[in-house]
């Protein structure tokens, strides 16, 4: 039995979840929020860095801002992709207007931008608004052999 580390997107606690429990929508041991239910959640600077550094599951981050029309247009597509990719990959959002320092560290030049991380490093990135199927394909192609 292998367990995976997952950072709670609500409280930032690192949880250990048994691999076979991922399908059963595990919850955070501290705050009770779901850890991996296919819903897109918003990260802050702390949970962003922690999840990239610590998580054992791939993480797809949508860097966006409220003023960005294409970002808002892509949001429902990103939500669909998140459902399709769960529980193997977690999909989250980072508001670059609230967290410009995080965006600059992630070298985000334009939004929306999707960056796929796996075990502490960037695997690939995709710029511009995309439909759900393209987002899911992008992730699967770049994680070939991992899922
Ligand atoms: Zn929590």
UniProtKB/TrEMBL annotation:
UniProt-listed GO biological process terms: cell redox homeostasis
GO CC terms, sorted: cytosol
Keyword field: Disulfide bond, Electron transport, Metal-binding, Redox-active center, Transport
InterPro entries recorded: Thio2_N, Thioredoxin, Thioredoxin-like_sf, Thioredoxin_CS, Thioredoxin_domain
Gene3D superfamilies named in the record: Glutaredoxin, Zn-finger domain of Sec23/24
Keyword Disulfide bond set for record: yes
Listed GO MF terms: metal ion binding; protein-disulfide reductase activity
Segments forming domain Thioredoxin: 21-144
Family statement: Belongs to the thioredoxin family.
The protein's name in its UniProt record: Thioredoxin
């Amino acid at each position: 039995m292998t367990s995976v580390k997952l950072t709670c997107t609500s409280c930032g606690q690192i949880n250990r979840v048994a691999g076979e429990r991922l399908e059963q929508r595990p919850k955070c041991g501290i705050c009770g929020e779901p850890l991996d239910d296919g819903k897109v959640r918003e990260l802050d600077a702390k949970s962003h860095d922690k999840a990239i550094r610590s998580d054992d599951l791939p993480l797809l981050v949508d860097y966006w801002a409220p003023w960005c029309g294409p970002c808002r247009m892509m949001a429902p597509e990103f939500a669909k992709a998140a459902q399709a990719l769960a529980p193997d990959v977690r999909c989250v959002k980072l508001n670059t207007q609230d967290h410009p320092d995080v965006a600059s560290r992630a070298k985000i030049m334009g939004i929306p931008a999707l960056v796929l991380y796996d075990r502490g490093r960037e695997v690939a990135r995709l710029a511009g608004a995309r439909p759900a199927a393209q987002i899911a394909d992008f992730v699967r192609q770049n994680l070939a052999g991992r899922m």
